[in-house]
Design goal:
Elements (H helix, E strand, L loop, with lengths): L11 E4 L4 E3 L8 E5 L6 H12 L1 H6 L3 E6 L3 H10 L6 E3 L12 E6 L2 E6 L2 E5 L5 E5 L7 H13 L5
Parallel strand pairs: 3-4, 4-5
Antiparallel strand pairs: 1-2, 1-5, 3-8, 6-7, 8-9
Length: about 160
C-alpha cells in the first residue's frame, strides 16, 4: 500500500476515451486518485458522482481528480457517459498500477476469498508525492473528507 512521503513510479494508461495518460504529464498540480472496484456498481457510482458534484470545489483548489479501476476502456467510457462524469477514468486492466500501489488484494465476501480492488483514495502533491491515503473507504461522507483534507493542504478555495 502506498504511504505518505512515497512518490510512485511513472505509468501510462488509457482513459475512458482511449487517450493515453502518462502520470508524469499530470505533475505540476495536486491530484486526488480514487480507486474503485467496478464501474456502474452502486458504491462506485455514488463515489464517482460525489467527486463529480464537488469538481468545482477541487478545481478551485487547483486539485485534479482522477478515477482508476481495472475496468476496460469501454466500461469506463459507458460509466463516464451514463453519469456525466467530469474526471478522467483510467483503465488498468493489466493491474500495472493497482498491484504496485497495493490496492489489488485478497478480499472476503460471504465466506468467499478472491482478489480484487480495495476501495482507496490517494491525495498527491504537485510533485506526485503521497500526502494522504484512505483505505477500505466507506463511500458515505468520503468525498467531503477528501475535500476537507485538500483544503487543509492547498487553501480554502474561497470557502
Amino acid at each position: 500500500m502506498l504511504s505518505p512521503g512515497e512518490t510512485p513510479a511513472d505509468f501510462t494508461l488509457l482513459d475512458q476515451a482511449g487517450q493515453t495518460v502518462r502520470w508524469s504529464d499530470l505533475r505540476g498540480r495536486p491530484a486526488v486518485v480514487f480507486i474503485y472496484p467496478k464501474a456502474s456498481t452502486p458504491g462506485c457510482t455514488t463515489e464517482a458522482c460525489g467527486f463529480r458534484d464537488h469538481a468545482g470545489d477541487f478545481e478551485a483548489l487547483g486539485v485534479s481528480v482522477i478515477g482508476l479501476s481495472a475496468d476496460s476502456v469501454k466500461r469506463q467510457s459507458n460509466f463516464h457517459a451514463k453519469y456525466e462524469l467530469t474526471m478522467p477514468l483510467l483503465a488498468d486492466t493489466e493491474r500495472d498500477v493497482l498491484e504496485p500501489w497495493g490496492v489489488w488484494a485478497e478480499k472476503r465476501n460471504y465466506g468467499r476469498t478472491y482478489m480484487g480492488i480495495v476501495r482507496t483514495t490517494v491525495l498527491f502533491d504537485a510533485e506526485g508525492t503521497v500526502l494522504k491515503v484512505w483505505t477500505k473507504v466507506r463511500v458515505k461522507g468520503h468525498v467531503e473528507a477528501v475535500l476537507q483534507t485538500a483544503r487543509e493542504h492547498f487553501g480554502n478555495g474561497g470557502a
